[in-house]
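INFO  loader      accepted 1 record
INFO  loader      residues=149
INFO  predictor   begin
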Amino acid sequence: DFSYAKIYESGVVVWDSGTYISGQSGIITGTENRGYWQFTTSSGSYSFVVNGANSTFPCATGNEGDVVQFTCPNEKVITRVIFASFGTPTGTCGNFLSSTCNSGSTVQVVENLCLLENSCSFTLSDTLFGDPCPGTSKTFSAQVTCATP
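INFO  predictor   done
INFO  writer      dumping tokens
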């Protein structure tokens, strides 16, 4: 995985363990998905999170009853909820997926609690999100964007 990326209007410049990679040195395709970039180069496929550029994309996961927290770097606030699911979501940060057991209010609840805040925390419960599948243990997965307001 790439350790650092800086995005310019003219394209993407990436340093991977000190190696310079750009459009002139082999990037065939590049796409962004929920804060993650995927590149296919002549030597393989790579992905990375954009950290240290204009935005960061923290994730939080937990089980019913846990307290979860999002914290943005100084001078940044939560500006967008990229993904949020309370039920039985799967996947990892940047690649979360909803399932058929998913509270439809999750994104709205997280937005109400967290938008324009530097950090926010809350306890995961049926009371907060509603119970999308009674009798099933629920988990929570979410990813937000932190940016300068």
